[in-house]
Structures are given as C-alpha cells and as structure tokens.
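Chapter summary example.
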Amino acid sequence: MPDEIFVVFTDQTDLWWLKFLRRGFRHCFIILRFADIWISMDALAHKTEVMRIDLPDGFNLPKWLESQGDLVVICPKHPAKPQALWPSIFSCVEAVKRALGLREPFILTPWQLYKFLKTSSERTS
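The structure predicted for these 125 residues follows.
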C-alpha cells in the first residue's frame, strides 16, 4: 500500500473533444508515493504510461504540480472490496477509479471525480 495517493486534475490535453469538458478538469491521473519512490499512472488515449519519477530529497511534487496550474487531491487510503467492478469505457477517470478501488459507475468526467473525492474527504475528516 502506498504511503500517499494523489489524483491530479489538469487542463492540458491535445484531444479536441476534451475541450468540451470543464476548464481545469479535462484530464486526470494518479501519483503514488512509496517512501521516497514516486510512481505516476497516466491513462492516455493511445496508451497508459506508468513511470517512476526520480526526485531530489525533499522535493514536493504535489506543490510543484499545483505551481504548474494543476489541481492535486490527496486521497484517503482504504482497501477496496474484492468485488468485480462494473464494465466501463476505459478513460483517464476510469483508470483513476480502478486504481483507487472506487465502485462509482456514474462518475464519468474528471469534474465528477473531483467533486466525489472532495465530498468523500470532507465526510472522513
């Protein structure tokens, strides 16, 4: 289990059809921190990139991403129930939901995912 889980929401996209989504919430991806090892998982239209991010000691990646205009949400760690998830169209949102173990079939856009995560974190804090 990672030490911290971050979901990053961004406006950056090269796909014209994503321009119809809410500004600032056109794409999302996940970052996992295991002690001093950072891993990003980014589901793109043509592939899913899973990368180790090598950073100097003390570098605050979430703060840096926010300085670049992205929005970063810290997600609570909780084990997912070992149940099959609903079949769904694969997208960046679906990739993040699966990585988090969320069983929310009607969350389809990054904005909906953001609202759900913020509401969930407010209930648990």
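To summarize the output: The two ends are 21 Å apart (CA to CA).
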